[in-house]
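Researcher: I'm preparing a figure for a lab meeting and need a structural model of a single chain. I don't have an experimental structure, so a prediction will have to do for now. The sequence is pasted below. Please return the structure as tokens so I can convert it later.
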Amino acid sequence: MLQGVEKKSDPIRFGGFLLLDYINAGGGDLPAGPFAGSGMNSGVVSPNLRSSAEFNLRKLQLGIRGALTEKINYSLKTISGNNSASRIDDRNRVRVIESSVTLNHIPGARVRIGMFKAPAVEESLGFVPPCNYINLTNATNMLMQERFFDADGSDPDDVNAPGVAGCCRDIGVMVFNTFDYRPWELTYAVMLANGHGISLQDDNDNPDLYLYLAAERLRGVGKGVQRQGWKVFAWYQDGQRNLDVGVTHTEKVFRRCRYGLGTTLLWQNLRVESEIIKANGMIFAGTDGGAIPGTTSNNGLSVAGYNVLPEDQALGWYFDIGCQIFADFWLNARYDRLDLGTETNGEREFKTLSLGVQYRFSPTLRGKLTYEIREGEAPHQADNSVSNQILDDLPNRFSAQLLYLF
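Model: Understood. Here is the structure written out token by token.
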């Protein structure tokens, strides 16, 4: 409702934001495996993957939105900067990140058409994800922030670099609305879309299905994203992906399914959020040996590339709590866990504790600091296995960010 419906009759409203950040990913070299001694992928800053610490103009988003008539409104946004959507092949691009029209003619059923955020996890629906932290949880980053690969990564000579990240968006048509039963508010959404993120082309003829349902008890304080209340929600998405598998690059079709539920609470000076995400098929599994993509193995017979588990499963969840200790200053703590490849002996568990502060200098300028304590484990392998030696060395990460809204 906040992103797809205009409550004012202004024909044009300009806006956007600028994100500047500093990230120190911890660095470090791989202690074992075929790429031992080379840089660890988890220790460098994305999307360039060249340095363990760097300053970035992460995002510059420009947009216009407004109401063409009392029944028709629109939204158009572009993005640039050093991020996984606009920086591809070492070149900066300006990309359309949102382009939609909402038709409000049918009582109880608004129709939004175009490219926009799909109804799904709470973290992805924030205006500047992640809103309270600088980096996404492992669950959202690995399971919901979809990367589009050509192959599963079996070819030892193929880096298998992904294309433009999906940015939790899709192109299609969504029917949605909110119903007021004070103090409760009910929201639903049903969407059919390409299933190929912000890319204008689709690689198969099967649309993705998105479902969303939420109920929120309103407190009657605040507005917009700061409106106070307690919300419970559930969502589901299902589609198909084409993928080349094996060293022969045989193309096959796989199911990609995600679903979850969660709750959020914003009440006076307290914020609590929690969510669980289940994933079936098309599991993004990181890089070979945890190495930086393109790194040559010590025996010279392969290069590190990205991997996908097309028929495996994963489970992720997080618990987040924030407290406003005085005006405009928040202390935040979030614990998230991700279990990747849960149907095989190669399962890996990732656990991250994020500690942060957030301060609003003015209505248009905000600052954030986050320190992430990262741990990993391969629970079905010996403690001295290559996987566990690498996961034992996961570096912690420090991030600082300035957000300017205009």
